[in-house]
Design a protein that fits this description.
With 200 residues, the protein is α/β, with parallel strands linked by helices. The chain contains 9 helices and 5 strands; from the N terminus they run E-H-E-H-E-H-E-H-E-H-H-H-H-H. It is globular, with a radius of gyration of 17 Å.
Length: 200
């Protein structure tokens, strides 16, 4: 069975995992961490076939992280999912260390494709649902990892209001979890790289 490690923000890991299981049910998740800096020790202790690193780091930090990984394992397949707009710079820096870089809005198929393992067909949804400006903002904050309570505090509304908005978003996207909703929002172009303005 193919073994995979994941490092990065929990909401992106969760969303990616749900899609990976649709694409390839035979992938075993060896180990996970919220911090890319943990990758070298995860690789050393679990020896996965591949690792996906999910990060908004700039190219200099990405290069340092990859150098640390290559000191531990020269052969592990690495895919860097760049959650910012520095994709070309990161790709240029990491290509020397035999790492694949995918853009922040890459589809699940592209990310798994970067692992260079075959995938089964994935039914794609059609039609882009309409979101209100408030729903855009809530999704962007959810993607940044804020809890419902923190989002409510930031927007000066009640927590139940945030839950209602997220329920409506889930219904529009036909998703059953917050992580899936964030993933779909990225795929449809509603979310921008971390730290940049949301799309309208």
């Amino acid at each position: 069975m193919y073994s995979l490690a994941l490092c990065g923000p929990v909401i992106y890991r969760t969303a990616l995992l749900e899609h990976i299981r649709l694409l390839r049910g035979d992938i075993r998740i060896a180990v996970q961490s919220s911090h890319v800096a943990d990758a070298p020790s995860l690789i050393a202790h679990s020896t996965p076939d591949s690792i996906i690193l999910i990060s908004a780091a700039d190219e200099s930090t990405a290069l340092q992280d990859m150098q640390r990984i290559r000191r531990v394992d020269l052969d592990v397949r690495v895919v860097w999912w760049a959650l910012n707009s520095h994709v070309d710079d990161i790709r240029q820096e990491l290509s020397r260390l035999n790492a694949r870089v995918v853009a922040w809005d890459a589809s699940a198929e592209e990310i798994v494709g970067a692992l260079e393992i075959p995938i089964s067909p994935l039914l794609k949804s059609t039609g882009r649902p309409h979101l209100t400006q408030q729903e855009h903002v809530i999704l962007q904050l959810a993607a940044e990892g804020l809890s419902n309570r923190a989002i409510a505090f930031r927007l000066s509304v009640s927590e139940s209001t945030i839950k209602n908005h997220l329920r409506h978003i889930g219904a529009k996207f036909n998703t059953s979890s917050r992580a899936q909703a964030v993933w779909q929002a990225v795929q449809w172009g509603y979310l921008t790289p971390l730290g940049e303005r949301p799309l309208v």
